[in-house]
Specification:
alpha/beta, 2 domains, 8-stranded mixed β-sheet, 6-stranded parallel β-sheet, 15 helices, about 45% helix, Glyco_trans_4-like_N, glycosyltransferase, D-inositol 3-phosphate glycosyltransferase, transferase, Glycosyltransferase_grp1
């Protein structure tokens, strides 16, 4: 065991942010620190998914200790309306801050994607360091595919992003991806040597709400006993395409189905979604929940929703699925039936898949599960079993630890 090895983790998102990549980066840092590594995290101030720096933060540089991990927060440009251009400026501003920050001469640097341009700057810094550290890039989302599938850039921008992504990943000593389909894309489309790619699945960071009172949570949020509550938790951005859920709620209103759609969270499109949903009685918005309230509300819902805009297929694995499976509730995913998300739901037989952008089919799937509670319960139990057997945090951290030790020993032998 390489104890006291200096490890630096660079990424835009870190706790107390509760959604997206942040919980995984936080768990990794804490896990590596508990395994005997000296971990320093270089990150931004918490700002996601609201795209506003949280109250109490915002200093030019802030140092704190979270769960035994040294955290250095750097102030960077946070756009109020995160369009493609403004997000690019945001990434670059964070990358430039990391370029001149103190790294404490680590033996290993872990760069967290999808902040591609910040990662590129980080790799330049690492390569130019007198004691060049080993470099791992941890790919949570495929950056260039994200641009292509969400339509946030034209063909030229997509080609440039793919070229830079390829260079960044080929420069790293190891590339860690969260799904086997990511590994195939990184190897075949981004020309990374397969021997340098490792698949380590994301884990569930939400505990199984075994002792939660669903009745209390439902009463708290005004959910009636006879209602079927279909809840979407997480970011409300472009990729999620939540207009589809609003239109499904509109159909439920018109046809007077006893269904309540709930959108829990925040994001760049929440205000627009609330305006579009004005007047709907079967749609409810909830602010993000903290601590035990989040798993409690997931377990109190009847159905948990994944929704992706049409065209999104391979760029990401929704982090919310690991939390959903912990709740033991059936999942309905409106997505590309041949895409990565659909595969993640099919693997444990944890839910139903409907085409993205089709509110009628989304509503019909919910009504089907409402009418067949035994089937819905079976799907939920399947997802929970998968979470317990496959999506464990300890196994993932052990895989990272083994990967790091092997990489360092390989470099020492040169």
């Amino acid at each position: 065991m390489l104890t006291h090895l200096q490890v630096a983790i660079l990424g835009l998102n870190y706790p107390p942010e509760q959604s997206g990549i942040s919980p995984y980066t936080g768990s990794l840092a804490k896990g590596l620190n508990s395994s005997g590594f000296d971990v320093t995290v270089i990150t931004a101030h918490p700002h996601y998914p609201t795209w506003a720096v949280q109250e109490g933060y915002g200093q030019w540089t802030r140092r704190e200790t979270i769960a035994g991990v040294q955290v250095v927060r750097l102030r960077h440009f946070v756009p109020r309306s995160p369009t493609g251009a403004s997000r690019l400026v945001s990434e670059i501003s964070f990358g430039l801050r990391t370029l001149f920050a103190r790294w404490h001469r680590p033996s290993l640097v872990i760069l967290v994607s999808p902040a591609l341009f910040a990662m590129a700057i980080g790799i330049i810094r690492a390569k130019l360091s007198p004691r060049r550290p080993a470099i791992i890039v941890w790919v949570q989302d495929l950056y260039s595919l994200g641009i292509a599938e969400t339509g946030t850039g034209g063909r030229f921008i997509t080609r440039v992003a793919r070229m830079i992504e390829s260079i960044v990943l080929r420069t790293a000593d190891r590339v860690v991806v969260i799904h086997p389909r990511f590994a195939s894309y990184v190897s075949e489309s981004l020309s990374v040597d397969p021997s340098r790619i490792a698949v380590i699945r994301n884990w569930s960071h939400v505990p199984y709400a075994r002792n939660t009172s669903s009745e209390a949570a439902r009463n708290l949020h005004g959910w009636r006993k006879h209602e079927t509550v279909a809840l979407h938790a997480g970011n409300m951005g472009v990729k999620q395409g939540l207009e589809n859920v609003i239109e499904a709620a509109r159909l439920a209103d018109a046809e007077e189905h006893s269904v309540r759609f709930v959108l829990l969270g925040d994001g760049s499109r929440r205000a627009q979604l609330e305006a579009q949903a004005s007047g709907l009685t079967r749609l409810q918005f909830l602010d993000p929940l903290e601590g035990a309230d989040f798993p409690s509300v997931l377990a109190a819902a009847d159905i948990l929703l994944v929704n992706e805009m049409p065209g999104v297929s391979e760029m990401a694995v929704p982090s919310k699925l690991t939390s959903y499976f912990s709740a033991g509730r059936a999942v309905v995913a409106a997505t590309d039936p041949s895409g990565t998300t659909a595969g993640e739901v099919h693997t444990p037989q944890g839910g139903l898949i409907v085409p993205s952008g089709n509110p009628r089919e989304l509503l019909e799937a919910i009504l089907h599960l409402r009418s067949d509670t035994v089937f819905a319960s079976t799907l939920g139990k399947n997802g929970l079993q998968y979470r317990l057997e496959v999506l464990g945090e300890e196994g993932a951290i052990n895989s990272f630890t083994g990967l790091i030790e092997g990489l360092i020993q390989e470099r020492q032998a040169l």
